[in-house]
Amino acid sequence: MVRPPNPRPLAPLFLLLLLPLPLGAADPLPIEGRLMNSCIQARRKCQADPVCSAAYHHLNSCTSSISTPSPTQELLVPEDCREAAKHLRNSSLMSCTCHRRMKNQVACLDIYWTIHLARSFDSDLCLKFAMLCTLNDKCDRLRKAYGEACSGSRCQRHTCLRQLRAFFEKASEPHAQGLLLCPCAPADQGCGQRRRNTIAPSCALPSGAPNCLELQSLCVADPLCRSRLVDFQTHCHPLDILGTCATEQSRCLRAYMGLIGTAMTPNFVSNVNISVALSCTCRGSGNRQEECEQLEESFSHNSCLMEAIAAKMRFHSQLFSQDWADSTFSVKERQNKNPALMPQPWVPSLFSCTLTLILLLSLW
């Protein structure tokens, strides 16, 4: 019997991860074609097209014309900058990539961030993720909806919470997590304040300081909130004193974000760290004091939740780092406590993979 020829070996997984395809895309291009679309090459193609070239130059000027707002202000993108970005939607620039150890790496990254209008905002990564949301029609629409519902003059808490739930349910996960879990330097209180204001706490959170058990009773009385609280307790639960977590970090983060817009909405407690808590107290709990403290500490002293948030923020920080080697080394040092977060040895371009995949999933 004649044996059929051996099938061609599958492409290494790290090559597949490098491909800048949006989720759900079908019938991808050949691997070689996608890997060759560096931002340097895409820029050369754009220069040959007068319309593309003019739009790119205008977009480049936009990065210096957009002012940095205060932490409580909305990020405003001039209409002409939006129009320039729209002209580039079908350009190969929109799917271009930059790879570690490539020639002209700095020039490539300069082009990449010109396209995504996030290059010139210094170290305030919360502002950069806000920009990416603003440039995405769906994210921008959903964010404006809860922003209007939760504004000080129009605040109706029930409506505000409903619009918050809609945002975190319907916005793409990269955009929603980027806004909520953006990393800030400890000394950058403006960035920290922007992060705390993501959920419009002045309207979304209860006034005063209700008892945490009262919040839990309100939550349990609502089928949606009750389900999401159980989800959080299931997926963000430390199993032992060593901090072993029940499930993977991605599920914990989704469960945590699922509580935003319910009676049990958590938030960051300050502008200078990543501690989170419910907006409640255990004063006056009587003989249920211990039960109340366990509930409160399931947010404020939850090692699984804190590590999941910290890991996602480190990941987001990498997305905007131009020194890939140093940032990768730094993250690897911090990941020693959780081997599951360690990059695999056969993924030499992990940063370029995630950079492309996350920011291009649903940017337009």
From TrEMBL:
Primary residence: membrane
Localization: Cell membrane
Signal peptide: 1-26
Keywords: Cell membrane, Glycoprotein, Membrane, Receptor, Signal
Domain GDNF/GAS1: 39-120, 126-203, 212-304
InterPro entries: GDNF/GAS1 (IPR016017), GDNF_alpha (IPR037193), GDNF_rcpt (IPR003438)
SUPFAM superfamilies hit by this protein: GDNF receptor-like
Domain of life: Eukaryota
PANTHER family hit by this protein: GDNF FAMILY RECEPTOR ALPHA-3, GDNF RECEPTOR ALPHA
Family named by the database record: Belongs to the GDNFR family.
Name of the molecule in the record: GDNF/GAS1 domain-containing protein
Provenance organism: Felis catus (Cat)
Name of the coding gene: GFRA3
